[in-house]
Please model this.
Amino acid sequence: MIHARKLTRRFRSRGGDIEAVRGIDLDVEPGQLVALLGPNGAGKSTCLRMLTSLLAPTSGTAIVAGHDVVADPAGVRAHIGYVGQRSGAGENFRVRDELVTQGRCHGLTRAGARARAEEILDLLELRPLAERRPGTLSGGQRRRLDIALGLVHRPRLLFLDEPSTGLDPHSRADIWEHVLRLREEFGTTVLLTTHYLEEADDMATRVVIVDHGQIIADGSPERLKGDLAGDRVTVVVRDPQAATRAAGIAERITAPGEVTVAGTAVTLRVPDAGAALPEYLRSLEAAGVPVSTAETFRPTLDDVFLTLTGRSLRESGSRAA
Model:
């Protein structure tokens, strides 16, 4: 569905050219749900805008839904859905009328556009809102309408730029329910950006992390967390001397450099915390090192970014991405 090579975008500024996207290679296969993560200014939205033909790349190539974003931008737009950060609905027409107008813009006949609007109203559970104007809708209802507008022409590839930002937890869950249903029932391929790491961790089949305009990690959430961050086991012992002994024992069961000591707490980075903890506790007991408490921690995508860059995604100019 998406095949991009060396995709680059430079912007001119008073201080010289700025490379917002720096030679990104990206392939997205049909049916995937890909979350594009990174701090503000990393190049996520710029990348989306190039892939949707809204912004011409400075260099590189991208074939999206079988069409070149530079040579055939109209072909790209005819075969994708795009939901930007701002609402695409007007304020003066009813929800049903907005959907019909969108269908007409995509070349449907008047009757075809009306029929498709009725289908979309049911698909995204908007029928009770069909006679209301967008300005009277809640944030979650309006976001569902935005997604509906992006689906009128039945695209197989849907781009969502921060679809749930600013919504309350209930509305966020509602949006995700509909997105996941689109993928399950219709095989829709989804590429999205999000400011919520938990969404990407729980929902995405694949996570692509971007920093300074380049892809620095790409894989399933579980693989990235396992390979790049790892589980952690932390035990608290009686005193610093016991912690030194516990750290020495820990170094026998994990790789060099994966053990840290903070006061009386010893932390190990391991591939599988559930398997490592019992072995470690048995070794400590055999050595006569009493343990006060023991905990295991699963890594997050923020831990992955921290491992890769030395800083947190949450502290890099974005709330959670």
Notes: Residues 169-186 form the longest helix (18 residues). The chain has two domains: 2-225, 231-298.
